[in-house]
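Notebook p. 47: complex prediction with adenosine-5'-diphosphate.
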Amino acid sequence: MKKQNNRQRMSGKKCAAITIRAFRLLCHIYPGVITSMIANIIWKALTPYVGIWFSARIIGELAGGRNPEVLKNLVLLSLICAAAVSLVGGILGRWAEAESRRTWFAEQYLFVDKNMRMDFVKFDHPETQKLLHTIEESRKNSGWGLPRLLWSLQDLISPFFSILGGTVMVISFFTSHVPESAGRWTVLDNPAFLVLLIAVMAAIPCISSLLANQGGKYYAVNNAAHSMANNLSSWFSFKGHDRKAAGDMRFYQIDKLCMKYGLDRKHLFGSQGYFADLARGKVGLLNLASNTVSHIFILFVYLYVCLKAWAGAFGVGEITQYVGALSNIAGTIGQFFRVWGDIRNNAPFLKQTFEYLDLPNDMYQGSLTTEKRADSDYEVEFRNVSFRYPGADTWALRNITIKFRVGEHLAVVGCNGSGKTTFIKLLCRLYDPTAGVILLNGIDIRKYNYQQYMSIFAVVFQDFKLFPYTIAQNVAASGRYDGEKVRDCLMKAGFGERLKEMKDGPDTYLTRKRNDNGVDISGGEAQKIAIARALYKDAPFVLLDEPTASLDPLAEAEIYDRFRSIVGGRTAVYISHRLSSCRFCDKILVFSEGRIVQQGSHDMLMREEKGEYATLWNAQAQYYAEE
Ligand code: ADP
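Predicted complex, structure tokens below:
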């Protein structure tokens, strides 16, 4: 597989700006996480210095005064301090951990909330879906985007306090001088040594981090290839456990194909693949160089500090303190640079995140109220409506003109792709017409408040979804519901018999996989629950797109027999492929290539022998007739 480059170059200023914006967003969505994280980091950063300080005092006393009383007090005090420090550290750690568990949810919610508020037409657009998919994949692979920034923040705050603590520890190193009696060793006090030490302290971590960042950059640059390879190789583990894929897996031995991606040595992740080559080659060498450089620095510090102690500038005990603190400072300076490298690598992913979160809603939304009327007196009219999907060059609907009478039951029939579902989507305003206008009680539907307009429709889509909650929660679409009403709707939708078999009734969880008392249901049963959900909503319009496609013929007949009582006086629009099931409707609309080519009752339409309806009817009827 070829590697791909998805990294856009961004200037340092732009990286900083987008990171600050993301940081503000993090503070907004995870306030508790940020506070607990900062408190925990500060504590962790300062903790090592307590040990270093006491060790220096104890070693100093051992090498110097050797007073047992002082030693005893120092050891006792250091133990008490160590216990107190670790106790507070433990409490802060627990707090940070408890808060951090919410980060995943909070971040997911950020996207889910955006999806819910976004125009459906924008959300459904292939470009939007591609962007969302890229963000998801990058996040899943290496935490690129907001999670990575959270990690970087931890690495950024911690060195700041480490340096602060370390500086306090080494002030005395810079102020203690080699005594005159040391003769030529007084040269160590020459300011040139200090300047050299500070220069090396700053330069070496920079070089070390730059080398490490060069290595890390390869992973960001190759994120697209990384995501792709991850997907292909992990597919095996997902599909290998998937009950729905088990049949195809067995008959076509797909496991062999999946394994190819998991075990092929030349595959991107294989032992002879691109990432292994990188680890052995460029990235490996850069990491080796980075580590070597930082070790050289520690050697230099040891030498200088030991020589000053040898010359009598301070006691042996302080060697531990100064070497520990100076290496810590240098290491953390390096961490700053590494974090900056990480932030730069992450900035293009944050840019993608904001590209998504900033997508504007272009759909016009008015403010008129639809006021839920007790008499359900709503009249809808399509006036010369045409529609083309975004990016498509063919019309999905052409010049549709139709008026629904209140309480009317309409059937919509036609071949695949003739525009039936699109008609429903326009009616409930998932899309706006490209031309023409849809009116509710004589007013353009765009002028109504969008949420209120949606609330007058209960829809069962062809590809409806149920959720892994209880049946009652699915029907009511809420955690709080009217139990009697839930039962009633389930009965009306034909789920009554199955409900009686369930020990927990409507409180039974869907899918046994997630709950011991849960149930697995068939496609037909799921469809009945979806119908019950539409009934529970009590909306004046019921839109059913192939509501019985998964039902067996008996269940289907039962639903149709009771359709009028199920839907009651509400206006119902109903799509079906089985023409026999449309006979009970007041009016049938026949769609062909995006147009309404016929409309009327079943008997009326059958009289037009050469019409689309009679042709479709006869095509279906012949199989039964022949049998
Ligand atoms: P039906 O419900 O009658 O099968 P649809 O309303 O789903 O037909 O589709 C009508 C036309 O619009 C078809 O040509 C279909 O390919 C096209 N179409 C449907 N959905 C989309 C979409 N999301 N993007 C682009 N074209 C679409």
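Notes: The radius of gyration is 35 Å. The chain has three domains: 12-30+102-226+285-357, 365-456+543-627, 460-538.
Next step: compare against the earlier run before touching the bench.
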